[in-house]
Amino acid sequence: MFNRISILFNPSSAKGKAGRSQFILQKMLWRHGIDAEFHFSHSAEHLAELAQHVSGDRLAVAGGDSSFTLVANVLRQNPSAPALALLPMGSCNDIARAFAMDDLDQACAVLAGGRVQAVDLGEIRSGDQVIGHFWGQVSLGLGAVVNREIETWLNQRPWLAGVRGLLGVQAARRALNRGEIPLELSVHAGMEIWQGKTSMVVCSHIPHYAGGLSLLPQADPCDGQLDLFWLDPCSLPGMIGHFRALRRLGGNAPLTGVHRARAAIIDFQASQPFVLQADGEILGAFQTVTLSTLAGALRLVVPSG
Questions:
Q1: Residue 251 pLDDT more than 80?
Q2: By Cβ atoms counted within 10 A, which residue in 3, 22, 86, 140 is the most buried?
Q3: What's the rounded Cα separation, in Å, for the pair 291 and 125?
Q4: Beta pairing partners, 265
Q5: Alpha-carbon dihedral of residues 252, 255, 256, 261, nearest 10 degrees?
Q6: Domains along the chain?
Q7: Torsion angle of alpha carbons 166, 178, 92, 210, nearest 10°?
């Protein structure tokens, strides 16, 4: 007995690797009793359009964190929308990892027999204007600036994708030399008020960042809260050392210069515009930003256990 399920497929995920893995995905789905009806997207706008017109009890997205967030934001606006299922085929897959579905075969099994659970999304405002939504995390500081630079370089010279790591180091050096990092920032997170300089800030619904780094291990995508990570100013070697320690020791490691907080609403203010990134997408530069949780805004297919 096979279940007919629509799958929105983003072949450009993971820098095009997802498109080359379609046959592998089809075999996994067939093995789990799923007769897939594929809908291929050719842009973010097209993916959102497809999500608006697919019916059924469950809708799966084969792609990465950016694709998941885009479709989740479409579905949350429709009370009768199908439950979303994740088929991780991106570069980081941190959203799927938060639900123990970062393995593609395991995700296919969940699509076939998982249960539906309400999970949180997030809203981003600058003043009175909604500028975006997120599911995983929002970052500002070094990570956002570096990714903006890399995105610009790769748009101009796509053949540099194979040396993305080297581009990141070069972008970080440029940001420090230009004085873009550290940021002078004021943060209001619940009862916590911080003001000062920071190299990097991440606000997240999920524990992992940048492809499996356990940055905020207490983060829960279903608790109605945002978890915040703040890194004090330090040199580039110092930042690399911090992240190596986090990978080796885990996110609860007591590191000098690392601070954490939790709140349902988090406000940022700065004297100069800062680059903002949400789930892999650069949103622009802003001086004031408010992040808030949309508790239980999305119906997600999760492991039945």
A1: no
A2: 86
A3: 7
A4: 292
A5: -20
A6: 3-113 (3.40.50.10330), 123-296 (2.60.200.40)
A7: 110
Residue owning tokens 């959203």: 95
Cα–Cα distances in angstroms (integers) from residue 7 to residues 1, 49, 136, 169, 300, in the given order: 18, 14, 21, 37, 14
Answer for the pair 70, 47: CB distance below 8 angstroms, yes or no: yes
Mean pLDDT across the stretch 230-249?
88
Q: Which amino acid is at 66?
A: S
Residue 17 or residue 231, greater confidence: 231
What is the token pair recorded at 161?
């994708």
- Supply 180's token pair: 């873009």
Note the Cα 201 to chain centre separation in Å: 14
Mean pLDDT taken over the chain? 90
d(CA 166, CA 60): 34
Flag whether pLDDT at 16 surpasses 50. Answer: yes
